[in-house]
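hey
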């Protein structure tokens, strides 16, 4: 694969400054929502969750990084299917606030995903290429392509400078 084109931008979100990435799908918002929230479909491109989301907390296993990963606890802040989702988690010493929104255009038959991470002390040169990689894996999963054909080495370090400049 050639070097992917970066799509991230930085702007003000509901809780502060955030990096945002978008993808467009020729799919109903319910199908994109399922790929983002149903554990078995989520595992096709990034990982799975366990627990009862009705409690507002789940354990997430980022299995795309390997099978022996430690779970991360997610606190669900908003869940409005099939439109908006927001959650907080901690990754090591870093606390992340992630959210996404889906907007459907019936005229175009397209659903737009806006994915965002609240920026704190995060290293944008790592965060941005990582989300580009995972969202392209999501796209492959939605479109029925092989997610393993997408290699992180195509994203990092190639997109590192672009995202470092956004910080």
């Amino acid at each position: 694969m050639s070097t992917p084109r970066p799509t991230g931008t930085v702007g003000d979100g509901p809780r502060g400054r955030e990096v945002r990435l978008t993808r467009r799908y020729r799919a109903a918002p319910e199908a994109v929502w399922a790929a983002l929230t149903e554990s078995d479909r989520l595992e096709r491109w990034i990982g799975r969750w366990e627990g009862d989301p009705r409690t507002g907390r789940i354990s997430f296993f980022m299995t795309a990084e390997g099978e022996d990963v430690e779970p991360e606890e997610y606190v669900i802040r908003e869940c409005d299917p099939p439109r908006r989702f927001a959650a907080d988690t901690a990754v090591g010493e870093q606390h992340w606030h992630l959210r996404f929104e889906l907007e459907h255009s019936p005229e175009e038959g397209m659903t737009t995903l806006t994915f965002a991470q609240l920026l704190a002390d995060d290293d944008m040169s790592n965060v941005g290429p990582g989300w580009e990689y995972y969202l392209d894996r999501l796209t492959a999963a939605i479109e029925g392509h092989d997610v393993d054909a997408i290699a992180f080495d195509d994203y990092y370090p190639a997109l590192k400078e672009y995202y470092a400049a956004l910080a």
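Residues 28-165 form a domain with the Alpha-D-Glucose-1,6-Bisphosphate; Chain A, domain 4 fold (CATH 3.30.530.20). The longest strand covers residues 94-105.
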